[in-house]
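cache lookup: miss for this entity combination. No prior model stored, computing from scratch. Input as submitted by user K.M.:
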Amino acid sequence: MGKTLFDKVWDAHVVDTIPDGPQILYIDKHLIHEVTSPQAFNELEARGIPIARPDQIVATADHNTPTVNQHLPVQDPLSRNQLEQLTKNCDKHGITLYGLGHQYNGIVHVMAPELGITQPGMTMVCGDSHTSTHGAFGSIAFGIGTSQVAQVFASQSLLLKKPKSLRVSVNGTLAPGVLPKDVILYIISQIGTNAGTGYFCEYAGNVFEEMSMEGRMTVCNMSIEMGARGGMIAPDQTTFDYIEGKKFAPQGDAFAKAVSYWKTLPTDPDATFDKEYHFDAAAIAPMLTYGTNPGMGIKINEHIPETGDMTFEKALEYMDFKGGSQLLDTTINYVFIGSCTNSRIEDFRVAASYVKGKQKAPNVNAWLVPGSQQVVKQLKEEGLDEVFKNAGFTLREPGCSACLAMNDDKIPAGEYCVSTSNRNFEGRQGQGSRTILASPLVAAATAIEGKIVDITKTILT
Amino acid sequence: MERFTKLTTTAIPLPIENIDTDQIIPARFLKATDKKGFGDNVFRDWRYDSDGNLNMDFPLNAPQYKEAQILVAGDNFGCGSSREHAAWAIAGYGLKVVISSFFADIFKGNALNNGLLPIQVSPDFLKQLLTSVQENPATKITVDLENQVVEYAGVYTEQGRSTKSEFEIDPYKKVCLINGYDDIDFLVSKKDTIEAFEKERMVF
């Protein structure tokens, strides 16, 4: 029987199998950041265990960093201490760190792919659930807890049970204005937030084949929001073209050799999956969430369901929405374009395409947070910073920002935020904040109009 | 890691589905660089109102559940962020076991790595158990890891249903919990095998 993309990468990394137990999986790349690594460094220090492979670890500061005045000392003492710990730990163990202000600094899941650190066929982990992003390249990438960060520090390996396989296929033609974010929000709204738990997901079909790498990253990023530890897309010419010439990508002959191996990775035609879903691209529209988990999504002009279970009622009460109502015309005072889901150059291009020549609504506070210094640089090269400035927006400096609101970028209690991030949990963007997840295009339109508008009407007329 | 063998105690009912790790420990409390103190802020935004007053309607604050060491929660517990701080917060609060009908993968692993036992039971059993604990907060629950059985002295059972349920656990993880071992010790002991693998692996 044929093998899946996942099987091929997994099997190539199994060091050993424990009878009646887990397998030892070798990890090629370990990404770390300031929030989930300090306790792991402490653990190894306390036990006198050295870091096994410091040259296979890359660190960035992103979760708990300010997005203004990064050149000044960090104000909050706890945050400053956390960042200093990361610097100290990386210095001590010879780990490459792209700290605040560094030209390669950025959100871990934005900076690693754009530097060519992420490659097909790799195993990659990070103490962050959105590590699934890197699966867009055909790598096995997943989030881990801090105990596992310590395990990888100690052995460059993890003890894992092989997950089951799931394939989500989307075929057909997407309507104008439907972005990769809408595709993944639609999938999650259909299959639920735990449909993927215990599984590793592969996305297949012409919709993903035709997507850019940025789009594929947006999709794979949110795999964890349907419970799947990771999501993958078969590497193809789009993948190879994106990687070629990147700083840490294989160069010259090594690149050609790598590509010939990467071409062997796609799922064999006769391979089978434990679970499959099929969707028609034409059924997908720009999406919005109305509740407090990413599965509670509707098409932009759809009505919220009339009634539901206790979880549904609790979510609606928190969001102050009524069953059966529409979200269109809801006044929105906060818009966030950023996060590891949607802060890449393509996301800002699409936002700029809507914003160009228009003015931000006076009631809106819009936070535009590029994913990395490289994205900032490219924005400037393409003149997009001017487009945003002329429309009344201010670009902030890179970081996770209001996606998880660990820093000062918090949405006030009771306020709605149309956000390109990945989670609409209660209080996720600040205590009492109410998140509506959407694509960068819907977010940009909201910022211009000051309320939710049906972009399928505005962009098509 | 602390050992876990057998436990008999009361439980806190939390009949909410999809409890995510942002609710278990909000991001603003993740600034510490050690594992201590997270228990004080477990379920912070549900336990306290916006003025910082205790919300007495929330089960964790109810005096009748003060001594409990088990949390019984709705389906899909621990979804969302990979933050192990969620497991540290629950364990730090003094809880030893979480019972639900479904757990998110990363949380489940994090819990097991901290001696906090996640027990998955059927939706029917969970419903019975939740009702029992809500109707009689003094309901005693016994968790026997060796025999993989959870049992409660119930006041409420649906006809023909048992107050006892077996549960699954990875045999390797069971040995770890009973003996207080963790994965680091094991992986470090496999150093030679890992290094041999490294020599053979493909690198570009």
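stored under new cache key. Chain B has a mean pLDDT of 94.
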